[in-house]
Amino acid sequence: MKIEIWSDVICPFCYIGKAELETALAQWGGEAEITHRAFRLSPGQSVIPTDQMLQHKYGMTPQQVSANLAQVEARAADAGLEFHLAGTLAGDTTDAHRLIALAQGRGKQAEAVAQLYRAYFTDGRNIFDRIVLHEIGADLGLTATDVDAAFTSSEIDKQIALDQRQAQAIGVRGVPFVVVDGKYAVSGAQPVQAFLQTLEAAAAEAAKNPIIEGDACGIDGC
After folding, report:
1. Average pLDDT, rounded, for the chain
2. Nearest-CA neighbor of 9 among 38, 50, 29?
3. Distance CA 215, CA 65 (A)
4. In what order do the strands lie in the sheet with 177-180?
5. Is the pTM here over 0.85, yes or no?
6. Residue 112 has pLDDT above 90, yes or no
7. What's the pLDDT at 216?
8. In terms of C-beta distances under 8 Å and separation of at least 24 residues, what long-range contacts does 165-172 make, across chains too?
9. Strands 184-187 and 211-212
10. Is the pLDDT at 209 greater than 60, yes or no?
11. Could you tell me which of 42, 44, 122 has the C-alpha nearest to residue 88?
């Protein structure tokens, strides 16, 4: 079974959805080849505090922002994740996706995605900082020279752009967006049972292209 996941590494629902999907895969018991596709929520956006982004985008008060972040942290905890959203940043994640693309070429894409999620949501690290990305790259066994080259690679940038165009072509407006065997789609951070049902349907070659809606980050942020 082939699974493609369009996501961004600063999207809280993407990390939650990833955890729920992994639980569903463990319960299902089959084998799956997972590919992470780049989806930048805010191409070209300057890096700003997440609370500031939420206030500007949705007109939230500081109190509303705090309540919203607490709700997301609670939902993450239900999925077995530890989130610390206060003090996080929002912006263009192209460099992080470049690191993921480099890691993919070394057979370490899954590890790169996992480390970036953990760095951002749990450890509160600034993954917009290339120094931090170099440190994560080193943890993955990537050389500083290769990481630097990835930041300026036209081929990697073409792949990132292609992932984004493919998402647009299949109608993705928010992430996470999971496609199973090119036929079955799950949109948003669904509960384990929803992912499990989709895996079982795909395995049985049942229903055609069901899309299950859930919480997601929109095209330009959460």
Report:
1. 94
2. 38
3. 17
4. 33-38, 2-7, 177-180, 184-187, 211-212
5. yes
6. yes
7. 80
8. 166/37, 167/6, 167/37, 167/39, 172/6, 172/39
9. parallel
10. no
11. 122
Going from the C-alpha of 124 to that of each of 26, 37, 50, 75, 128, the distances in angstroms are 28, 23, 12, 18, 12
Here the tokens at position 188 are 């948003």
38 phi, psi to nearest 5 deg: -75, 135
The residue type of 182 is G
Q: Give me 52's structure tokens.
A: 């500031």
As beta bridge partners, residue 2 has 33
Q: Which two tokens stand for residue 46?
A: 């300057």
Q: Where are the beta strands (DSSP E) in the chain?
A: 2-7, 33-38, 48-49, 89-90, 177-180, 184-187, 211-212
**Contacts of 6 by beta carbon, 8 Å cutoff, 6+ apart:** 37, 38, 39, 163, 167, 172, 175, 176, 177, 178, 179
Q: Report which residue type is found at 208.
A: K
Q: Residue type for 92, please?
A: D
Tokens of 215: 């919480």
Q: Which residues pair with 35 in a beta bridge?
A: 4
Nearest CA among 120, 152, 121 for reference residue 136: 120
Tell me the residue type at 54: L
pLDDT above 60 for 210: no
Cα 75 from Cα 98, distance rounded (Å): 29
pLDDT at position 207 is 46
Rg from Cα positions in the chain? 17
